[in-house]
Amino acid sequence: MQSPTEQLEILKRGTVTIHSEKELLEKLGRGKPLRIKMGVDPTSPDIHLGHAVGLRKLKQFQDLGHHIVLIIGDFTAMIGDPSGRSTTRPPLTYEQVMANAATYTEQAFLVLDRSKTEVVYNGDWFKQMPFMEVIRLNARVTLQQMLQREDFKTRVQDGTEVRLHEIQYPIMQGWDSVVVRADVEIGGSDQLFNILVGRDLQKEEGQEPQVCMTLPL
């Protein structure tokens, strides 16, 4: 494994934000493999080029000896990430999502090393979550926080509807980070808000908050 400083120089190439480099360097300095998380939602049958950018960054981490956790968002895909959207996404059925997901891992393994990648589905924990737990999770964030998102704020100002299930998306993505105990989460530059929610939820659960690493769209 290369030195923490050498790793950081490699890993920060091509990034938009790292929140924060100091935290990442500290984590790398412990000399243990980090848990690197990225989630993909099967909203269509194919992984697109935006996903490929993230997968290539995951491969950099993997080549440096870190552990990759690829989350297939079978539950979050039924909502659809509202990031950067000016309208509500059309809802998908669970059957449509799983049909789309059928080839996702095979496509991801064109970039990632299959033997060194942990693949999980967030339906594995959200299916088991009782409604009381959903309420408890929602109580940790405020509507004002959610409306700080530029896409939500713009839609409200324009008189375009924001449906309540869309507000659940950042919370669900954040909870994924708690479940998999992520040290770093990778996403597009539009994902920063969602990844920061994950940091907040990890802190509340007594976990060390993940480093946010965003990449160009």
Please render the helix and strand layout as text.
Layout: H1 4-11, E1 17-19, H2 21-28, E2 35-40, H3 49-63, E3 67-72, H4 76-79, H5 94-101, H6 104-108, E4 117-121, H7 123-126, H8 131-138, H9 143-146, H10 150-158, H11 164-180, E5 184-188, H12 192-204, E6 211-215
Parallel strand pairs: 2-3, 2-5, 3-4, 5-6
Antiparallel strand pairs: 1-6
How would you explain this protein's 3D organization?
Strands 1-6-5-2-3-4 form a six-stranded mixed sheet, sandwiched between helices. Helix 11 packs across helix 12 (192-204). The protein is 47% helix and 14% strand. 35% of the residues are buried. The protein starts with a helix and ends with a strand. The protein is built from twelve helices and six strands. Helix 3 (49-63) links the parallel strand 2 and strand 3. It has helices at residues 4-11, 21-28, 49-63, 76-79, 94-101, 104-108, 123-126, 131-138, 143-146, 150-158, 164-180, 192-204, and strands spanning 17-19, 35-40, 67-72, 117-121, 184-188, 211-215. The model has no long low-confidence stretch (mean pLDDT 91). The chain is α/β, with parallel strands linked by helices.
